[in-house]
Amino acid sequence: MSDKKVIRDKRTVAQKRKDEKRGWVVDETPELRRSVEQEIQGKVDTNHPDSCRASMTLEQEEEAMARDIEIARTRARVGEHIETREAGSRRAVQKTKQQARARFDERAAGVDRWRDPERDDPREMLSQSDLATVNRQAARLEEKLDGWTRAAISRRLAERVADGRGMTDAVVDVYDELDQAAGTVIPIEKVGEVNRGEVSIEGTVVQLWEPRSSAIQNVGLIEDESGRTKFTTWAKSEAPLVEEGDHIVLRNVAKNWYEGRCSVAVTSWSRIEFPERGRWWE
């Protein structure tokens, strides 16, 4: 015997009609609604041109195919010349910098004639023997000057020789100029003598102290063959941590004076290099 109970509506047909007229009947039929995915897919199927070609006439289908072929030909013809917004912005910024540099060189040509962008390379004005001597001296200075290429050094030497300076005087002038130029690694003993606010030095971390403030990441002493000086790494610089015994290069560190002593500080504009690791972090 089955234990299932069946619920039936025991009203007569006349009673049902009377209830419908009085508005007592509630429609219990569930409302069917499409899901979000179905709504999206429906719009895609309706609006996408490729989905409607089955209902197109032959003329409309040929026009759609011709449009696709023309788009493919245009893309193939243009190819790599299509630039993204980022690439276009970089190109515009680079062009603006070059134009500003050219305008600055034109103004500077009133003081130094070799800054004129229209002037020929001074090395082309030298004789073969003078040019050979300039190249030999440039190769020798390249070994002593950090961060300077042989081509840049030879151009500066050629400028002075073309101006009538002797080779010995030209070599001394160029060495003094580039040895104290921004970005060149200088001996620690010369940090206080250089007439600029930022310097680059190289040495070994010989001692570290416990920072007295959370704003300081590292503080200690760096030493090379000429001397030692205090260095401070600010936390906001996001520079890598150093340890005692590390051989490092501090690029573009700021000079500070306190009670007649000069020290350096690693800021957000500075860079710490680890030559022995073969890599660097900004």
UniProtKB/TrEMBL annotation:
Matching CDD domains, A to Z? SoSSB_OBF (cd04491)
Here the segments flagged for biased composition (Basic and acidic residues) are 105-124
InterPro entries hit by this protein: NA-bd_OB-fold
Q: Where is this region: Disordered?
A: 1-22, 105-130
User: Out of the domains of life, which is the source?
Assistant: Archaea
What positions belong to coiled-coil segments? none
Q: What protein name is recorded for this chain? A: OB-fold nucleic acid binding domain protein
